[in-house]
């Protein structure tokens, strides 16, 4: 098993006692969904729900269940990518994780004879893709480590967002030295609320942005209104009051040693680098209509009446730029104002869909 | 294609935008807030009013007005015009003097500040040494005399404000010739009055506060004569011939002093306490006006008996046996008398008295019998009763306009028909392009109709809804029930009366159909009145219906106010808008939205509980819809929050006080109950404010849910003839939007005209849209096949609008406080949207469709949305593509009442309250701009002529006012002066 000159990756899949060998394009691995389909295809188990795992370079058995860890698996596999496939019903989750190889002598035996490990009843939790996300930290790759961008997802009304904001002042480094500037801070977390249970937000965290829009210069009431208007998909960038929990990244170790005062770099402007678009995943689109006292239905999107060259070019731009998660400065504004074409549900949906379909994945 | 053109990208569009949109604050209508000073130029016939915030406003003939603002924003204490000049000097409370000029630029005059000056004493002297108390501009126009607290009179040169130290009149110099015993008692007194000798500019009269009056000879720099008054001096006045002076005093007396040529020590000719013998309040100002054919007019401010009338704000006019004490409802700031302006005329012959009170301007005609009031063409007191809502109607058809004016003129019969006495300057503004009405609803249940076409906001007609109801207010509860023989002979004047007897009468919504003359108004206690314009007086019973908005909902208890009791018997209505139907909502919550369709003869109304539709032709309720969420307890209980109830109780206590005062007026009034209540009021406000500031300000971040309170609150109602059910047939429909982001649409069946009375109007709910962001719906609009908003009812019938396009598909625009959304019709699918709050943090407060015409091309115009946000910004958003066109900051975001009061016109203008008594007018359009443009002649030659020809003038004419005008304009080709004067004078 060697790497072929064209960059294909030898892959060995094991389901039960059966092995299958096939190759993947290392540079264009495609999506997890497609990989999953491929596995079902090569193992001839089209309708079987399975769990997929691989052995990483340290010999740990790690799951593959989304695009990210799939890409990680492909990129780190050297030389062979070993895949383990288990039926979901009799999956052993404890087999996964770090040190799995040292804890348990033989991964293979664990996987092959799961009944050995049914002594301890474990809590049955589903795999991440069965969860609905309630919060996430996003854009860690582009933000300074002193900042944190948190996304809160609000489903229905069962759990309140549960936080309060207040006015305050923070110290900022400017070319003229330190300067006290007004800022917005989290003032209270409601016990049991979404904000508190995520653990990503804390009292006295300074709010820097709401859904990509800087709050500096805006009043408390304005920021409140912005947050409430975005409450179904709220993305807030904060500077945590407690900077000790920051992940120290190699690139900026010097600049980020746990200081609670502001250490933001003068050159940092949040608007230049942004992984998301304020109107992306616009969950407030699901307005409801009741016709003639009938059943409530979601209001559909109107079919576009005309298509223009302009719209196509813009979508392409957008598509390209989001591919690598980086939007050059010149295009940021464009993406903002052209928001209604970039949204998943907007009028030009079909265009975008077709373009995405057009991005070809070679297996 | 256009959808993708963002602003800033298309140069053609950018150019067009410049031709369409332009933001200007054009003119302030109404009465200046907190006036503090009054000035008048008999030469220019201009009046100036200064305010506590440092503004000065000049008014002349209707349409002639100027405004200036002192940078310091300090209170204007005094205003003095320079004789024979287009200049005036103001004194502020920081002791600074400011010189203002009316300068001509490109044909129109502008008010500009030219100089400022602060009088400074020698180093180390106390500030009182230079604290200015009185200002006298000398008729030579070269100097100002400044009386100070130290008793010295300083002289400064004009226009440079150079202090002429050698000409200072020190109190020491004055006291030299005063008898020893008198001098010892009275050193260091402030200068209370400075008056120039009417016939001899070389002499000025100086009055000191403790009673000493001297006539100072300017050339010889010495006291020419002195008058040893024994009472504290308030003011002085020269008789026109210069033979007598009149002094008025703190004890309520006035005295006449002869000015003879011999140098004896003089005693007053006569000293009188007009409202004695019991102690009286000070007479602060006095005029002695001579007439050719009779006794003089003695006009003085104050002097009321201290004990029983000490709280009155009065000005008394005495003319022979006639005497009236004009009684003002607010404090008198100052007054002047319009008389023969010619300094050489033998008699004053006063024609009018102009009184600036704190809340209104009152002008009394002194020539007509009974001294009636003159109806001012401007400076209307908008806040006679507090404004609760406004409604603007553009382009009123001439017929309706005339009928409203005729109804109004019948109400104004008690006014004098004298022409407006302050008539300086020339209005150059073009005639207003169209007739516009601004309707204001007031707390006392009245609706006032204002001519808002031009620069002068003029009251045309006042409608009262009070008569329809039985209120506990006694109609005879008059502030002035005194008989003929009462003393003092008080007469209440003016219209300012801010205290409503029943707050439930307050008007909350107004809609006028300019084509049919139907008017509907709705009020605080859930009352809706439909009215019709009738040129005749009528006595009839108002039909009465009830709309139970809770329908079958059980177990709710309304804790708010009771509904108003309607009169069952016939009621007499004066010519004008007469109610014929009264609908009362149950519970009687405030009406929050109102719509009238004059063609279908339907009126829709909404409250915090639901909405209803009433057929005012058949006088039948068509349907009601409850919009309440079961958990919305707050809406059910009524509008009383703690703060409001406290305010209410204060108001009630005030009312009680007022009643007790009226009933027992002979009792000692205590000298300022009003003041105490106001003080308590302001203290309460301050306390509340402080409390708010001390509390940590934090805001809860929570998604809105259906359970929030007041979600059922109906914010907007809209009638449209559109495709509600299928795309082949359109039908009448009613749309309602709530505070919780719900839109209801009802399909209506209106019988054809010939069977209109026979068949009932039917309604059926066709659609209900729930916006997921749940923000309050503030506007609903249907766009026709061309993307143009549907016309108003009857607009097409009157050939004033193109028929809407019924071929292409219609679209529904829903404006919430946070977003604009366009949906297709009849099948509702979302088409376009514009988010506002999510991106900018501001919310829509007001929205309207406005038509913008191009200033370049006559025939180009387009419809856009004009919105006002809670931050006070105005934005223009294109239709139907919802693109932000332009944004202007307009109102301070802290000015919540200003933002709430804003009303847009159909052609891109607007009004908002800058104080309880003033509307600011603004324009967003390049084409429709109403602003003052006027000229006051400043040519030097006019002034010179005026003075140099003094002797000649004396013989030429006695009709000074007209001749003054003639003189001013003689050298100009002024058509205005030439035309009306005519007759023998020319």
UniProtKB/TrEMBL annotation, chain A:
**Composition bias, kind Low complexity: at what positions?**
251-264
Segments for region (Disordered) = 245-287
Q: Name one Pfam family in it.
A: PDZ
Q: Mainly resides where?
A: other
Q: Which residues form the PDZ domain?
A: 149-242
Which chain positions lie within coiled-coil regions? none
GO:BP terms for this protein? cell division; centrosome cycle; establishment or maintenance of cell polarity; regulation of cellular localization
Matching entries from InterPro entries are given as: PAR6_homolog (IPR051741), PB1-like (IPR053793), PB1_dom (IPR000270), PB1_Par6 (IPR034868), PDZ (IPR001478), PDZ_sf (IPR036034)
Q: Which UniProt keywords apply?
A: Cell cycle, Cell division, Cell junction, Cell membrane, Cytoplasm, Membrane, Tight junction
Q: Using the record's annotation, list all stretches that form the PB1 domain.
A: 8-88
Q: Which GO terms describe its cellular component?
A: apical plasma membrane; bicellular tight junction; cell cortex; nucleus
Name its cellular compartments. Cell junction, Tight junction; Cell membrane; Cytoplasm
Family to which the UniProt record says this protein belongs:
Belongs to the PAR6 family.
Name of the protein described by the UniProt record: Par-6 family cell polarity regulator beta
TrEMBL record, chain B:
The residues covered by the Lethal giant larvae homologue domain are 272-372
**Claim: Transmembrane is one of the keywords in the record:** no
The yes or no answer to whether the keyword Cytoplasm is present is yes
Gene Ontology molecular function, alphabetical? GTPase activator activity; myosin II binding
Task: Name one matching Pfam family.
Answer: LLGL
InterPro entries xref list: Lethal2_giant (IPR000664), LLGL2 (IPR013577), WD40/YVTN_repeat-like_dom_sf (IPR015943), WD40_repeat_dom_sf (IPR036322), WD40_rpt (IPR001680)
Mark the WD repeats by their residue spans.
433-451
**What is the protein's quaternary organization?**
Interacts with GPSM2/LGN, PRKCI/aPKC and PARD6B/Par-6. The complex is enhanced during mitosis. Interacts with DCAF1.
What is the protein's known function? Part of a complex with GPSM2/LGN, PRKCI/aPKC and PARD6B/Par-6, which may ensure the correct organization and orientation of bipolar spindles for normal cell division. This complex plays roles in the initial phase of the establishment of epithelial cell polarity.
* Protein name according to UniProt: LLGL scribble cell polarity complex component 2
Which organism does this record belong to? Answer: Chelonoidis abingdonii
């Amino acid at each position: 098993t060697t790497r072929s000159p064209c960059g294909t990756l030898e892959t060995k899949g094991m389901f039960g006692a059966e092995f299958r060998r096939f190759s993947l394009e290392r540079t264009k691995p495609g999506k997890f969904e497609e990989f999953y389909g491929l596995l079902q295809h090569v193992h001839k188990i089209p309708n079987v729900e399975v769990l997929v795992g691989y052995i990483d370079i340290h010999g740990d058995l790690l799951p593959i269940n989304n695009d990210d860890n799939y890409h990680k698996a492909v990129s780190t596999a050297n030389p062979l990518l070993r895949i383990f496939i288990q039926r979901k019903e009799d999956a052993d989750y404890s087999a996964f994780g770090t040190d799995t190889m040292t804890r348990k002598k033989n991964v293979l035996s664990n996987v092959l004879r799961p009944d050995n490990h049914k002594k301890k009843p474990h809590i049955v939790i589903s795999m991440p893709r069965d969860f609905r996300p309630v919060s996430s930290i996003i854009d860690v790759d582009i933000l300074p480590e002193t900042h944190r961008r948190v996304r809160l997802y609000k489903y229905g009304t069962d759990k309140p967002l549960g936080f309060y904001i207040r006015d305050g002042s923070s110290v900022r480094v400017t070319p003229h030295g330190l300067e006290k500037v007004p800022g917005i801070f989290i003032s209270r977390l409601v016990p049991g609320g979404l904000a508190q249970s995520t653990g990503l937000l804390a009292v006295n965290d300074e709010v820097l942005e709401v859904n990509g829009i800087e709050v500096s210069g805006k009043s408390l009431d304005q920021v409140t209104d912005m947050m409430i208007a975005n409450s179904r998909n709220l993305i807030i960038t904060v500077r945590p009051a407690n900077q000790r929990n920051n992940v120290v990244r190699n690139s900026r170790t010097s600049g980020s040693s746990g200081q609670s005062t502001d250490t933001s770099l003068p050159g940092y402007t949040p608007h230049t680098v942004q992984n998301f678009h304020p109107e992306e995943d616009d969950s407030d689109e699901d307005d409801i209509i009741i016709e003639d006292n009938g059943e409530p239905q979601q209001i559909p999107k109107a079919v576009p009446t005309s298509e223009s060259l302009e719209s196509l070019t813009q979508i392409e731009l957008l598509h390209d730029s989001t591919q690598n998660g980086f939007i050059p400065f010149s295009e940021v504004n464009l993406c903002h104002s052209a928001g209604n074409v970039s949204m998943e549900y907007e009028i030009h949906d079909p265009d975008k869909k077709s373009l995405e379909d057009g991005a070809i994945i070679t297996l | 294609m256009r959808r993708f053109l963002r602003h800033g990208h298309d140069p053609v569009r950018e150019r067009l935008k410049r031709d369409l949109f332009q933001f200007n604050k054009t003119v302030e209508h109404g009465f200046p807030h907190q006036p503090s000073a009054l000035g008048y130029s008999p030469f220019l016939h201009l009046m100036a009013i200064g305010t506590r915030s440092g503004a000065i406003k000049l008014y002349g003939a209707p349409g002639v007005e100027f405004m200036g603002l002192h940078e310091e924003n300090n209170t204007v204490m005094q205003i003095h015009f320079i004789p024979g000049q287009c200049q005036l000097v103001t004194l502020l409370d920081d002791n600074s003097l400011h010189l203002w000029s009316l300068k001509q630029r490109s044909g129109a005059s502008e008010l500009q500040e030219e100089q400022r000056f602060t009088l400074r004493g020698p180093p180390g002297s106390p500030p009182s040494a230079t604290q200015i108390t009185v200002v006298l501009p000398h008729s030579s126009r070269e100097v100002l005399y400044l009386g100070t607290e130290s008793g010295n009179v300083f002289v400064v040169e004009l226009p440079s404000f150079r202090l002429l130290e050698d000409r200072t009149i020190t109190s020491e110099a004055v006291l030299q010739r005063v008898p020893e015993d008198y001098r010892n008692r009275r050193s260091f007194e402030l200068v209370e009055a400075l008056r120039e000798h009417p016939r001899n500019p070389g002499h000025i009269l100086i009055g000191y506060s403790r009673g000493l009056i001297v006539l100072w000879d300017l050339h010889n720099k010495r006291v020419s004569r002195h008058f040893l008054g024994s009472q504290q001096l308030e003011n002085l006045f020269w008789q026109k011939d210069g033979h007598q002076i009149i002094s008025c005093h703190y004890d309520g007396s006035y005295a006449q002093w002869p000015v003879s040529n011999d140098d004896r020590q003089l005693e007053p000719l006569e000293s009188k306490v007009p409202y004695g013998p019991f102690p009286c309040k000070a007479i602060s100002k006095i005029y002695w006006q001579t007439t050719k054919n009779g006794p003089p007019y003695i006009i003085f401010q104050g002097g009321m008996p201290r004990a029983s009338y000490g709280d009155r704000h009065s000005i008394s006019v005495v003319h022979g046996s006639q005497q009236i004490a004009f009684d003002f409802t607010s404090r008198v700031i100052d007054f002047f008398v319009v008389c023969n302006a010619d300094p050489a005329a033998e008699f004053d012959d006063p024609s009018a008295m102009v009184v600036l009170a704190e809340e209104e301007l009152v002008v009394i005609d002194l020539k007509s019998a009974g001294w009636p009031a003159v109806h001012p063409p401007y400076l209307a007191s908008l806040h006679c009763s507090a404004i609760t809502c406004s409604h603007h109607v553009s382009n009123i058809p001439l017929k309706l306009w005339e009928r409203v004016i005729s109804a109004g003129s019948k109400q104004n019969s008690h006014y004098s028909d004298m022409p407006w006495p302050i008539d300086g300057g020339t209005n150059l503004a073009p005639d207003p392009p169209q007739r516009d009405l601004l309707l204001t609803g007031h707390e006392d249940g009245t609706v006032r109709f204002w001519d808002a076409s031009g620069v002068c906001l003029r009251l045309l007609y006042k409608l009262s809804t009070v008569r329809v109801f039985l209120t506990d207010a006694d109609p005879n509860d008059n502030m002035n029930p005194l008989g003929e023989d009462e003393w003092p002979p008080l007469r209440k004047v003016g219209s300012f009366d801010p205290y409503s007897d029943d707050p439930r009468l307050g008007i909350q919504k107004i809609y006028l159909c300019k084509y049919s003359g139907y008017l509907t108004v709705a009020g605080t206690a859930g009352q809706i009145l439909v009215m019709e314009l009738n040129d005749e007086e009528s006595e009839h019973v108002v039909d009465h219906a009830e709309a139970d908005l809770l329908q079958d909902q059980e177990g709710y208890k309304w804790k708010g106010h009771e509904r108003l009791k309607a009169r069952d018997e016939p009621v007499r209505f004066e010519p004008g808008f007469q109610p014929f139907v009264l609908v009362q909502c149950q519970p009687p919550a405030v009406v929050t939205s109102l719509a009238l369709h004059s063609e279908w003869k339907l009126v829709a109304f909404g409250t915090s509980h639901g909405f209803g539709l009433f057929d005012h032709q058949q006088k039948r309720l068509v349907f009601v819809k409850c919009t309440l969420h079961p958990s919305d307890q707050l809406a059910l209980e009524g509008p009383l929050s703690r703060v409001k109830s406290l305010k209410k109780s204060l108001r009630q206590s005030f009312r009680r006080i007022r009643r007790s005062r009226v009933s027992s007026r002979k009792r000692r009034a205590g000298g300022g109950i009003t003041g105490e209540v106001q003080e308590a009021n302001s203290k309460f406000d301050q306390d509340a404010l402080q409390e708010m500031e001390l509390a940590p300000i934090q805001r809860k971040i929570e998604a809105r849910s259906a359970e929030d309170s007041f979600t059922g609150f109906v914010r907007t109602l809209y009638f449209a003839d559109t495709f509600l059910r299928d795309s082949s047939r359109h039908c009448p429909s009613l749309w309602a939007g709530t505070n919780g982001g719900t839109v209801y649409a009802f399909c209506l069946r209106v019988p054809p005209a010939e069977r209109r009375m026979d068949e009932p109007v039917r309604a059926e709910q066709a659609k209900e849209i729930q916006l997921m962001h749940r923000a309050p719906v503030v506007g609903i609009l249907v766009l026709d096949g061309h993307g143009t908003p549907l016309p108003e009812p009857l607009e097409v019938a009157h050939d004033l609008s193109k028929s809407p396009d019924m071929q292409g598909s219609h679209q529904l625009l829903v404006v919430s406080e946070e977003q604009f959304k366009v949906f297709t019709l009849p099948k509702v699918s979302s088409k376009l949207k514009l988010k506002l709050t999510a991106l900018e943090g501001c919310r829509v407060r007001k929205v309207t469709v406005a038509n913008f015409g191009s200033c370049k091309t006559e025939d180009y115009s387009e419809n856009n949305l004009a919105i006002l946000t809670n931050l006070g910004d105005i934005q223009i958003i294109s239709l139907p593509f919802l693109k932000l066109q332009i944004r202007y900051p307009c109102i301070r975001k802290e000015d919540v009442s200003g933002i709430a009061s804003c009303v847009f016109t159909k052609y891109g203008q607007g009004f908002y309250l800058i104080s309880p008594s003033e509307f600011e007018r603004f324009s967003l359009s390049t084409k429709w701009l109403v602003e003052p443009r006027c000229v006051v002649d400043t040519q030097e030659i006019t002034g010179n002529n005026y003075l140099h020809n003094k002797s000649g003038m004396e013989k030429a004419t006695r009709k000074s006012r007209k001749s003054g005008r003639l003189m001013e304009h003689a050298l100009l080709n002024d058509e205005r002066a030439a035309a009306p004067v005519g007759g023998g004078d020319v």
